Amino acid sequence: MQEPEEKKIALELLETEQAYVNRLHLLDQVFYTELMKEAKTGKTVPEEVVKMIFSNISSIYQFHAEFFLPELQKRMEDWDCNPRIGDVIQKLAPFLKMYGEYVKNFDKAVELITAWSEKSAPFQELIADIQKRKVCANLTLQHHMLEPVQRIPRYELLLKDYVRKLPPHSPDRGDAEKALEMIFMVAKHSNAAIAEMERLQNLWVVYQRLGLEDDIVDPSNELIKEGPIQKISTRNNSTSEKYLFLFNNMLLYCVPKVIQVGAEFQVHLRMDVEGMKVRELKDTEFPHTFLVSAKQRSLELQARSEEEMNAWIK
Fold this sequence. Notes:
By secondary structure, this protein is α+β, with helices and mostly antiparallel strands. It folds into 2 domains: 5-210, Dbl Homology Domain, Chain A (Up-down Bundle); 223-313, Pleckstrin-homology domain (PH domain)/Phosphotyrosine-binding domain (PTB) (PH-domain like), CATH 2.30.29.30. It has 9 helices and 7 strands. The longest helix is centred in the first third of the chain and has 37 residues, at 5-41. It is elongated and about 90 Å long. The mean pLDDT is 88.
């Protein structure tokens, strides 16, 4: 008799989990443990750096090796009298939130490996030595480290397939569908963690360009638009080059610094978005101009084109 399709997928889940636990063992018990041992001697690289590279890999390894894999193995042994994996995956799903930290840290980890390999020959040699071992299958540490990043999407695909192949009245249908929903939410959680990290990194770069002024640095701000603008001076009918940063709660009116030591801009004026009014000005002498009025003051600004003006007004 042919194995039912859903059992084949459940077996594939078990086999890939076994291989995955071996990969986690290599990362945690070989790379991390040996690099840490060397770091403690003070000859290769600071212990802190090793911890930063491997993030929370130990917790991830323990969870899969000591809990999830044994549970799956038990299930597959009992498959004939109890054909179900949905409930086990439901237990797994909340713990996958641990991956948020690892995934968020991944790019930084790869950067650290590169930087310290250049800085410390013993560090580079130790990694090269471990990579030569049979267990590494000719792959680099970075390659092995990518595996946990790809694991949650893999669960999602396998489980989707499993739910699709389940007979309509299967006793596992309700549990498996709920498990899939939970895994989907975790995948979203991990993507959101990456997006949030990118947002904060970009925001930090903007704050550095502004000279890290105390009252401006706030992690909850969102940068909406930035760019050069001409400020119209009605007094002597001329324009001068300025630069705007528009956040969700404030408009920063800046002057580009001539000597860029540290900051790139100097903030001349901070205007609150709350209560701000913006309208186009029909000025024949200065086309593409608009007026920004806030409780602090009003500015007549000129964009380089009509499109740019409309983008700022919007």
